[in-house]
Amino acid sequence: MPKDYSKYLDYENKILEDRYIIDKFLGCGGMAVVFRARDTYLNNMVVAIKILKDDVANDETAVRRFTNEARIARELKHNNIVAVQDIKTNGRVKYMVMEYLFGITLKEYLVAKKKPFSTDEIIGYSAQILRALGEAHRNHIIHRDIKPQNIMLLKDGKVKVMDFGVAKRPDMTTLTATDKAVGTVYYMSPEQAAGKKNIDTRSDIYSLGAMMYELATGQTPFKGEESLTILVKHMQEEPVPPRQYNSSIPVGLEQIILCAMSKDPAARFQTAEEMLGYIKQLQANKKIKFDELPSNSFWKNFRGRIKRLFKKEK
User: Fold this and answer.
1) Distance, CA of 64 to CA of 4 (rounded, Å)
2) What values do phi and psi take at 103, rounded to 5?
3) Among 39, 145, 163, 204, which one carries the catalytic annotation?
4) Cα–Cα distance measured from residue 50 to residue 31, given in angstroms and rounded to the nearest whole number
5) Secondary structure E strands in the chain
6) In whole angstroms, what is the distance from residue 116 CA to residue 132 CA?
């Protein structure tokens, strides 16, 4: 519960737009507060309302990010992406109305579990996240902040990807003043860590790989006392193979994680659908060892190019 929780009590029992009756505070983040509410236009259906905090409601960057999240999420219609039903960003109270999710975040589950996830859990959650990313990527949208806090686990086992606040299209103008190092340091791709402008959908693949690493081992791939230290490690260091921390991990799962986390985007899975294909193979056969992965082909071709280059010089 936030220290200034009492200030949000004023919203409870209020009616927005003569339609939404707010009945319970659910939580808050850096920019917004979330409430449970009832939609009187739809037989009092339970919804979640995310309201931009008053202290950032006039901040141009915050409003742009909030509007960006609402519009992008509303565009995406998929079972594994949280649905946004209504948006208002031009009044004093800026808010979005979303489907109400009965569940917890993957981060909350990680904290409560206190041990590595089973292979079946990792496969099941990753497959659903990849389906969500596939839908976003087909619509030319890069999430840019895949992390356990942005994944909801519902009671029926379904996964929902949420928070498209820093998402962007490859051809979209910058979202923030610098647009550098957008994302969360523990799951950030090397190209994001370097502040490169032209990142693409393969950055989300890396972030998912880093998250899978944590689910499989109980720890993030890279650690450090300062954010900069972790960012440098993403750019320069290879992660310890996850089976060194958890020998029960199937070899195939370790291969998938390390391929997704390749430093060079060209050595990763090139699409969410491609990665999902390998996940499905692992799901069918936990003992599988992949002879051909994008990273294998990349380095094989790279070594071939180097050999040909030396032959020409001779």
Assistant:
1) 25
2) 180, -160
3) 145
4) 10
5) 15-16, 20-28, 32-39, 45-52, 84-88, 95-99, 103-105, 151-154, 159-161
6) 23
Q: What CATH topology corresponds to 5-99?
A: Phosphorylase Kinase; domain 1 (3.30.200)
145 belongs to the catalytic site: yes
CATH architecture of residue range(s) 103-301: Orthogonal Bundle (1.10)
Domain residue ranges in the chain = 5-99, 103-301
Q: In what order do the strands lie in the sheet with 45-52?
A: 15-16, 20-28, 32-39, 45-52, 95-99, 84-88
Which residues on adjacent β-strands are paired with residue 167?
none
Note the pLDDT tens digit of each residue in 80-133. 999 888 888 877 888 999 999 999 999 999 999 999 999 999 999 999 999 999
Task: Give the three-class secondary structure for 70.
Answer: helix
Q: What are phi and psi of 220, to 5 degrees?
A: -75, 155
Strand partners, 88: 95
pTM: 0.85
